[in-house]
């Protein structure tokens, strides 16, 4: 088998940049019938004019506009209205189609998309071995494969209408793998954050027989100078442009069950990078930890608050059993939550976890987003995850009461405006408003079964699917047009993914835990 190199995929990503937006003809649909439309070739001005779209703005006023135009200049929305004119713009006739904001995924382990189907939550017995799968796989993949994972992971997100994500990158065991994963995601063109997990210290290799307790302790251990060196390199060499679509975040190794003094030391050093995101997984422990440790009280938010460690950069995922007081201190300090909805359905069976906290977070005034989480085990059709954020409310009595007050906007908001706020980007993305970045999803509506009645939010959150996505723009640049990714052959790249699976899969299987 020939070696798969990052150069191969850098060439592919170069083609993605070079050919973005060069499609010669667009297909415009109405709710009743399809009709041809012409599209002017992109001009050197970089302007884009989308005409006659039904616009689901997802702004604070929840405005919807019919047959309305949007003008994009310099990657930002400069005008919204009827009859807009821009002689030097590329023109897209979107009559009868729905234009909505690009969606936000607040918690996804992107590298795991390489293993899609190896485990699935529809086979709970096998999925219970998730941590062992992860411990085997991270030492068996190489940097080239990490690059592929970032590239295909970002492309699959865009293909499903996600234009901003928080990649919780916990699968990289050395600097070469971390840089490769970051560059792959960067080259995909998706916006958001690459949040590097500190403390990953797995020291065994394929073919080894390893004590399971030892392997588990190394999965996320104490952060060392070697980990800080990786963070330094990522920060200075990969994420050195403050205006880039993809920015840098960190996931500290210290947290639940650690002494607050240790947490303070690590977090202060992490915050010295002046990052927007400090991400963590949070689950309420089955039994309280001792005083002076995170998790002495409930999920640990009050412990962190008393230690002065909470802040507007603190982003926690899951957080399903937070108390009212814990939500209060998060609100007071500007903290954020991402509940992964579809992934958290099974947690209802574990008494110390509980269902998704979306509704309670919103009621408490804490910004909450949605995420896929384990991208190897769940569908990449992001609309399914959006719907799960609503259905999850019905798993507990308090959620039923919240659900009864909802409208479709509330469900979709977790993946758009509030979802953007939950990763500190609501001033940039999440709604269609002048001044914001031109991150759009254009939906066809002519598929049989795509509801024609109701508000635009009703129709999208109830009926939309990946197959309905005609186009995706990020910062005004076309990444998907006419239902196809621009300048990228996903099928060809997936063949590279399959070849990689064939290489490292047997290596991972050769590791024996005892």
TrEMBL record:
Keyword Lipoprotein recorded: no
Keywords linked to the UniProt accession: Hydrolase, Signal
Pfam families hit by this protein: Amidohydro_1 (PF01979)
InterPro entries per UniProt: Amidohydro-rel, Metal-dep_hydrolase_composite, Metal_Hydrolase, MTA/SAH_deaminase, TAT_signal
Domain of life (superkingdom): Bacteria
Signal peptide residues on this chain, from the entry's feature table: 1-33
GO molecular function, one term: hydrolase activity, acting on carbon-nitrogen (but not peptide) bonds
Domain Amidohydrolase-related intervals: 98-478
Gene3D superfamilies named among the record's database cross-references: Metal-dependent hydrolases (3.20.20.140), Urease, subunit C, domain 1 (2.30.40.10)
SUPFAM superfamilies for this protein: Composite domain of metallo-dependent hydrolases (SSF51338), Metallo-dependent hydrolases (SSF51556)
UniProt similarity note: Belongs to the metallo-dependent hydrolases superfamily. ATZ/TRZ family.
The protein's name: Amidohydrolase-related domain-containing protein
Taxon lineage: Bacteria, Pseudomonadati, Pseudomonadota, Alphaproteobacteria, Hyphomonadales
């Amino acid at each position: 088998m020939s070696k798969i190199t990052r150069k191969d995929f850098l060439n592919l990503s170069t083609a993605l940049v070079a050919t973005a937006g060069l499609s010669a003809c667009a297909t415009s649909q109405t709710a009743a019938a399809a009709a041809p439309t012409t599209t002017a070739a992109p001009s050197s001005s970089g302007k884009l004019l989308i005409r006659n779209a039904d616009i689901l703005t997802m702004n604070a006023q929840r405005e919807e506009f019919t047959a309305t135009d949007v003008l994009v200049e310099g990657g930002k929305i400069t005008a919204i209205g009827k009859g807009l004119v821009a002689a030097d713009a590329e023109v897209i006739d979107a009559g009868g189609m729905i234009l909505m904001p690009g969606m936000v995924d607040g918690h996804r382990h992107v590298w795991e998309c390489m293993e899609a189907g190896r485990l699935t939550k529809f086979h709970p017995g096998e999925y219970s071995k998730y941590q062992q799968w992860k411990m085997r796989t991270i030492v068996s993949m190489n940097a080239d494969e990490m690059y592929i994972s970032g590239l295909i992971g970002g492309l699959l997100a865009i293909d499903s209408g996600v234009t901003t994500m928080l990649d919780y990158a916990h699968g990289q065991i050395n600097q070469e793998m971390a840089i490769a994963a970051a560059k792959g995601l960067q080259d995909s063109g998706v916006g958001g954050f690459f949040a590097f997990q500190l403390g990953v210290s797995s020291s065994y290799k394929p073919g080894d027989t390893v004590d399971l307790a030892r392997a588990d302790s190394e999965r996320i251990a104490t952060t060392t100078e070697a980990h800080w060196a990786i963070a330094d390199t990522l920060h200075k060499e990969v994420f050195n442009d403050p205006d880039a679509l993809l920015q840098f975040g960190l996931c500290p190794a210290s947290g639940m069950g650690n002494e607050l003094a240790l947490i303070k030391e690590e977090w202060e050093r992490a915050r010295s990078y002046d990052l927007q995101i400090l991400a963590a997984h949070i689950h309420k422990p089955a039994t309280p930890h001792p005083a002076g440790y995170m998790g002495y009280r409930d999920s640990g938010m009050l412990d962190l608050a008393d230690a002065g460690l909470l802040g507007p950069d603190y982003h926690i995922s899951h957080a399903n059993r937070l108390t009212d007081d814990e939500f209060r201190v998060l609100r007071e300090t500007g903290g954020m939550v991402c509940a992964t909805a579809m992934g958290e359905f099974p947690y209802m069976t574990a008494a110390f976890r509980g269902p998704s906290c979306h509704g309670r977070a919103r009621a408490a005034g804490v910004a909450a987003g949605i995420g896929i989480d384990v991208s190897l085990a769940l569908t990449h059709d992001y609309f399914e995850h959006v719907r799960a954020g609503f259905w999850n409310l019905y798993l507990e009595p308090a959620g039923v009461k919240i659900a009864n007050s909802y409208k479709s906007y509330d469900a979709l908001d977790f993946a758009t405006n509030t979802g953007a706020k939950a990763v500190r980007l609501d001033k940039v993305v999440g709604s269609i408003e002048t001044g914001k970045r031109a991150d759009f999803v254009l939906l066809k509506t002519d598929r049989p079964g795509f509801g024609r009645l109701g508000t635009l939010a009703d129709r999208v959150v109830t009926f939309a699917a990946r197959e309905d996505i005609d186009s995706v723009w990020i910062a005004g640049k076309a990444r998907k047009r006419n239902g196809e990714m621009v300048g990228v052959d996903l099928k060809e790249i997936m063949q590279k993914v399959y070849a990689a699976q064939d290489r490292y899969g047997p290596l991972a299987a050769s590791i024996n835990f005892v």
